[in-house]
Hints:
Blueprint: H1 3-13, E1 18-22, H2 28-36, E2 42-45, H3 49-63, E3 67-71, H4 76-79, H5 82-90, E4 95-101, H6 117-122, E5 127-130, H7 137-149, E6 156-161, H8 162-166, H9 187-199, E7 203-207, H10 209-212, H11 216-229, E8 233-235, E9 250-253, H12 261-268, E10 271-275, H13 281-284, E11 296-301, E12 315-318, H14 321-332, H15 339-361, H16 372-382, E13 388-391, H17 395-400, E14 412-413, H18 424-434, E15 440-445, H19 446-452, H20 455-461, E16 467-472, H21 477-486, H22 501-508, E17 511-515, H23 521-530, E18 535-540
Parallel strand pairs: 1-2, 1-3, 3-4, 4-6, 5-6, 7-8, 7-10, 8-9, 10-11, 11-12, 13-14, 13-15, 15-16, 16-18, 17-18
Helix pairs in contact: 1-2, 1-7, 3-5, 3-18, 9-14, 11-14, 16-23
Amino acid sequence: MTGGEAVVETLIANDVEVVTGLIGSSTLEILDGLYNNADKVRYIGCRHESNGMIMMDAYARYTGKNGVFLSGQAGPGVSNTVTAMAQAKAAFSPVVNLAGAIASDHKGKDAFQEIDQVSLMQAVSKKVFEVRDVETIPHVLNEAMQTALTPRSGPVHVDMPRDVLGQTCDFEKASKFETIANPIADEDNLRKAVNLLSEAKKPVILVGAGIKNYGTIAAESVLKLAELLNAPCTMSPGHGDSLPYGHPLNAGSAGPRGSGIGTQLLKEADVILVLGSRLGFNTTFYSYDNLNEDASIIQCEIDQNSIGRYFTVEVGIHADAKTVADQLFNLLGDHKAKKEVEVWADQFKDNKKNYLKQRDAEADMSSVPIMPSGLFKELRNVLPNDSVVTLDAGTMCLQLTDALHYHQPKSLFSPLDFGLVGFSYPAGLGIKLAAPERTVVSFHGDGGASMILPELSTAVENNINTVCVVMNNGTWGAEAAYQKDFFEGRYIGAHITTPEFDKAAEIYGCKGIKVEKATEIGDAIQAAIDAECPTVIDVQCSPDALYSFRQDSFKHKIKK
């Protein structure tokens, strides 16, 4: 078979069910192999490589499997994936970028569409692979997929010259790569952690992607441990779905995207158990302003280099967080929480109850254009419990991070640390491919929505029926907020003109809905869910609802 056909056979052997891509002549042998195996691997053609890669980023995060993208054309087809690869790397997402390259004997001759793709992708990949001989294709692909999924996971790039893909070879039967086992926790460190937790008076559990990625079974392990310790739980931003909203010990997200309750717990805690989080930028700003410097930190991480990287830890545990939560629960045995812990937990529950009550009471339901507080309150009431929410970067979406209720793990997906605008809608398409039975709602500002309009064709063409909610306020909201708060309202480049997104959606073959009052969003969401096609809801939001998340960046401009 050809090298291109060998690529497809290797994907099938590794249980790959979906490939997204953008057609290009550099990889037609792979596409031909996919044509012959359309009953085994579904191919989804996107309209821009970055969006197709984002689809696979979200697909991989949801399924825990490799997301496979085909960069069909050498040169610009590959360079168009760089931003989305950087996004996937920041999210530790196991995407495999199968990239066509110019012919081997054309390299170094300034050939048509020539660029050093191997060097280009180094900075945005966990590892870069280069295929030089056709017979090595199965081995290289298996190693690439294994590397992408091996903790800490991340995107890999596979460079394949077009002549190599076209060559024929007698290949052995394709096989599946071997999974590498997770590290096992050191027993002495587990005992040290148990001693600290047993003596704690104000314990807090901070949960990250290392719990979320395991889904419901990991959430159950954490909550069982939290109930034994009577310890409130907060979550790193973007992973507020790690634990179900309704649990009384759930404090929501920490960091500036949260309500403040989670961060306050971290500021007051005497013992902080970190399960599957790096204590990274969006949670802490790398500052003791956001957690108690005197607290004893127990950090469990799958990546050895992340333990104690940003904050001194009392105990570091190199293992997967779900297993460690179970081990700690078993070692604690018949532990009884101290009286001080009861007071601590009761105070937290009162603070949470008061916050939620006040949040609903202060929601602005009447303003036109719509204020975020009113929109968010209505969304909390109308979104189905099985919804998966994808968020874009930008101030409106950042406010949504902790404003919605997530009833089960793997219900929230955001750009995380790379902050890519234009992430949400293609991510929602990827989630819907992974979980067609769930309601998928993607939120955008009008700026980000302008970037993804062509992918409405992808959704229509492939019957990927998600809901896109555009919070349309005519601004690049985050930057407008900074110009308002720190540059005396000297606006430049912050205000934009966009089409009526509901009407634009209809041109693409979607259902379009306009919402001008907060009370209309419920009917709009239900109509979108009932529609048998992709739907876009244009929500007219106030341009005055600006919020500066990154005030730390402008300390030099804050007047004393």
